[in-house]
């Protein structure tokens, strides 16, 4: 998995190596770091596992839980969320492979989860007969480890799989090879100790891997810098190096696509979070760089062609420019770039086909490649459809739109590189999710549906547009009672970063605990996200970050103008980059909001590159080590701009000790600073869970119950202004 794949966004429906800098060092010198000419008095909280910081965490957890878990609604909210999360009538989403449906499942009987599979035909049935492959609860108990599932990849024969397990839910994993026939880990199989590793099978007895090989082998972002080829039976020390990236890159990763037409092996060098180089790995000879723009984002492969989306306009040699946001197929000049088929010409121009170019109101959100077709979820004004692209005998690609419901989100759940099938899903804010199976004939059929978790008969979702400070129209969705006649307690959720779109989602949590109690739920589609493709994201990059915050503030003002809510009744919520969003807005425009729930956030943007995996996000925010970048970051960084003499809305910070991506450092320091300034702050840090702040259903139920009780206390026990 690349560093991009590791990015987890905390969504409303609920996410070894600790990175560079002081967070990884284990001890901190308070005298060395200065911000704006003043020493940072809370630098000691960056010692994540230090005795003094953990004592501080325990004291704050005790205060937060006493206030929130002592609320009469807490236990019933917790029980309601956990019941839904553990319900056996949930949809068991599957990964398709060789006609099998693989699923990882957690419930009350299996809190850590079981990995299982069934045939695709059986999966279509209401009650499939699952074959349990690995019981994680039994494994964790037997090995006395706090294992959290992080995924599996199987080889072409479907005999063995590389399984990734995390201690506590962080991104650092232990990799072990598993035999599907014996249902056991291979005692002499491929195995890697805990690290932020990326591993994939090249063939039955060879893997491409990047891991912590020792000093200098990881990038400044904390991801693998070196890709090696490791053969079965040989010690890791003898693995052959095939590529070395730069220390300042984000990562270097081996990527292998296995399909009936052959195996395509690549090395992907992520120069920064949005720029990559791609190299073919032939069976003999040197790597061969593909002549692609660095903004090309690899989605998969089919019949010798590599499928990409473009973040920037590209003019291939001798061809007309291809607009940014397009979906393309690229076939290297040598023809089939299959492993074993012979070398490709170095830097030679290949064949480029354009499958789709969205207009200014549209964006490609997801792309999955099956044996026979390329599936893309394409959104227009943030409502989705699924397009299927097939290459004909004449070499031309043809586009068809599948018959799915309208007015919500469409997602491509999984495709099979070895068969014609695909799984799709549809949902909206008020419509429970339905799973569809396409047998390859272009006629998807509903096979599973989520039961309604709340009564939506009196609810309505409307899309509005707010006008931002620079005149840009910014969409947002409001879900509330159809009969609403006046302002109501409202939660405004946002993200606005990394070209990730906030599309309509069915949330049992918000439905049961907020909408059903008369509240309104609002989702902001601000710039920085991917709702309108790369241009929408790039509009709020780097020195233009303020535009995302202006958009969010414009929506808050528009909600009050329309009478949906009042500032005192408006709560805001966001996680990760969304945590930065809500904390920045809280600091900039505190008069607009009545409460804040800030989850696993970035907040100290002057030190973020030295905390966790922060260095990997410099292409999004800028590098505070550069004076020009530091100047624009200082204007919005919440930690540097929060003031004692301003009145801020009350805020709840939620984070996790085991989050080795953003880390709990940001939330700790901001909570400590705001407390010292006399502001209304609660802080809760879960031990497990990684960047999701929850490793199992019980922890997730706790996090969400705390959040909803907090919002109720702050937004419904006071009148509007």
Word description of this protein:
- The chain is 19% helix and 32% strand.
- The protein has 721 residues and is of the alpha+beta class.
- The strands form nine sheets. It has an eight-stranded mixed beta sheet with strand order 32-33-35-34-36-37-38-39, with helices on both faces. Strands 7, 8, 9, 10 and 11 form a five-stranded antiparallel beta sheet that branches.
- Helix 3 runs antiparallel to helix 14.
- The protein is globular.
Topology at a glance:
Elements: H1 22-25, E1 34-35, E2 38-39, H2 51-68, H3 74-86, E3 95-97, E4 100-105, E5 114-119, H4 120-123, E6 131-135, H5 136-143, E7 147-154, E8 160-167, E9 173-179, E10 184-185, E11 191-195, E12 198-203, E13 206-210, E14 226-231, E15 240-244, E16 251-259, E17 262-272, E18 275-280, E19 288-289, E20 296-302, E21 305-310, E22 327-331, E23 351-356, E24 362-369, E25 374-380, E26 383-391, E27 397-401, E28 409-415, E29 422-427, E30 434-438, E31 445-449, E32 459-467, E33 473-481, E34 490-493, H6 508-513, E35 520-524, H7 534-538, H8 546-562, E36 570-575, H9 577-588, E37 595-599, H10 618-621, H11 627-636, H12 638-641, E38 651-656, H13 665-676, E39 681-686, H14 697-715
Parallel strand pairs: 34-35, 34-36, 36-37, 37-38, 38-39
Antiparallel strand pairs: 1-2, 3-4, 4-5, 5-6, 7-8, 8-9, 9-10, 9-11, 12-13, 13-14, 14-15, 16-17, 17-18, 18-19, 20-21, 21-22, 22-23, 24-25, 25-26, 26-27, 28-29, 29-30, 30-31, 32-33, 33-35
Helix pairs in contact: 3-14
